[in-house]
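A common beginner's mistake is to predict each chain separately and then try to dock the pieces by hand. The better habit, illustrated here, is to supply every component at once so that their relative placement is modeled jointly.
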Amino acid sequence: MVCELWKTRLDTYLDGELASEEMLAFDSHVHSCSTCGADALSRVQMKRSIQAVGKRFTPSPEFRKRVQRRIEARPRRAAFGIAWMMASAVIAVLVVGGLASIYRGRDTARAEQVYSEVADLHVGMLASAAPVDVVSTDRHTVKPWFQGRIPFAFDLPELQNSEFSLLGGRMTYLAQTPGAHLVYEVRKHRISVLVFQEESLRARLAENAPAKKELSFNVETWSHGGLRYFVIGDTSAIDVHNLAELLKSAAA
Amino acid sequence: MTTLAVYHIDVSGVDPQSGSFEELAMPLFDPLYNFAHWLTRNRDQAEDLVQETYLKALKGFSSFQLGTNFRAWMYRILRNTFLTSCAGLKATTTLPLDDAEDDEGPELAVEFVTPETILIDRSNAYLVEREIDELPVHFREVLLLSEVEEMSYQEIAETLSVPIGTVMSRLSRARKRLRDGLRQRMSEGSRSGETSLKNGMIYGL
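With all components supplied together, the output reads:
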């Protein structure tokens, strides 16, 4: 009966998570009780096996380099401090400039963050070994795939007479909200089309924001029927605009 | 905790005030990838998961609170990203609603031929691997964080955003499932006479 009480806490003892007095008492018991000693030994062996087996997967050097390249150019934490100081100075100027300017600045910062996240989603797709979860050049295959995966439906354009082709789609998230990530191709350039519910982004973007450049990508965004669309790619602004127009006409 | 780690993460020597994100985060790259692969069971998905984790962490690094646990913070981002992914949503559909489910109390009986003693033979590692792989994700993750990453209960609680009591309970049940699963495989193997079991795994049985 005494041993049963010890055994209920044996794993906690072997994990080193008991209080020091309890650890000492356990040490003493395990050394004097052959049954508990044998049980402890077998559990340690199990821990070692899990540990050996658990360290099974290693990333490829190429993948490590890819991620490292993406993060190494960013500023050091100390630089963040300087950035914050500069930001504070800018805010101070805005305060002097008037409340209206502050509101405009805040809206711009929110929108910039959204654009930045959209660019990250596009780059993440480009860098991925599996850029799409559903592969297709047919809108009738891709669209149904999203049923039950995202809480809304959307329309896709016919592409027969255009230079665009639909490669496929994948699930994505922006501001903790699920959305559709469609991948199109034009002359070997990949373009991402991202569709989210507008209500999750309303506070961060104007209804129809102008086309812009983000990290050298051309971006166009608009809102229609409760959905927010983004088109982003490294191809020309005209291509991005043409694809945006096709999507708008399909949704109209 | 045991001290058998092949890789050891020590960010205590890095001053987070002056250290770059890269200096803090890159030493975690291999273990994070390993953990991601165990969660997703797929190389491509693990790479996507790790890449997304690093991008999110980099973006949120300026708001990372100094003095808090950077490793737990990174693992938490990875796990939350996994749980909201397609693979994560599929994996968690088997999560029991009640944490007390299938809790049959501690294992008290002592067996001198146990799954653990048989595991002395390293050639049987694949059996353990299969058993870990078949654990539900909420058991698999807690077991790996404890045994492979050698996290303390407190650190696991921070990573999973659950109380320490839940960590202890899940860990205990994960180990019990693992032992039960191994015991089952051994008895099936001895009945069917699998070659691998003949080759040293059932000595003593």
